[in-house]
Amino acid sequence: xxxxxxxxxxxxxxxxxxxxxxxxxxxxxxxxxxxxxxxxxxxxxxxxxxxxxxxxxxxxxxxxxxxxxxxxxxxxxxxxxxxxxxxxxxxxxxxxxxxxxxxxxxxxxxxxxxxxxxxxxxxxxxxxxxxxxxxxxxxxxxxxxxxxxxxxxxxxxxxxxxxxxxxxxxxxxxxxxxxxxxxxxxxxxxxxxxxxxxxxxxxxxxxxxxxxxxxxxxxx
Length: 220
Prior knowledge:
By secondary structure, this protein is α+β, with helices and mostly antiparallel strands. It has one domain (about 5-215): Peptide Methionine Sulfoxide Reductase, Chain A, CATH 3.30.1060. It is about 35% helix and about 20% strand. The chain has 7 helices and 8 strands; from the N terminus they run H-E-H-E-H-E-H-E-E-E-H-E-E-H-H. The strands form 2 sheets. A 6-stranded mixed β-sheet has the order 7-6-1-3-2-8, with helices on one face. It has a two-stranded antiparallel sheet with strand order 4-5. A hairpin with a 2-residue loop joins strand 4 and strand 5 (about 130-135). Helix 1 packs parallel to helix 7 (about 195-215), helix 2 crosses helix 4 (about 110-120) and helix 2 (about 55-60) packs parallel to helix 7. The relative contact order is 0.23.
């Protein structure tokens, strides 16, 4: 995987991290014009999103009000290949993903997508995020119902038409066929490894951006 290279290429990777935020107009980021409502927004809900290495994605969503649980794992491939070493080959069809359980009375699916697109990752990078390269790091939304699919597709169109990014969004929108939790040592990795170089340079800036741009969404 690309992560160990971080120890020998800090200046280059720091530049990659900073440029991701420069690619979007975060202060102008719009709310989704379409959101999940009605019966599909009652009771505990889940969202499955992929935006590069799951350590930072999990770390961001764990800090959002209304989110009750986040699990790092894999989606897009078969259960039999949902193991870190196999997924790391880029040949399993899986993407490193997170499963988010949330209370829709406190945070909507659309608001989760707003954070996903503006803070969590760069949705204009195809099959990579920052220093990590491969289809397992692709940007993807795995929808669990038609409402989620409609919101995701509408929001991507909305952001592209508003030219929020300099390049078109390449996020895959696909049905969730299965989510498989990653190995135990990947769970809550950011919180357990706050001084790990990869976390410091790739993921702590995401937490800072979340607090800066969306303080109202952050847990106290």
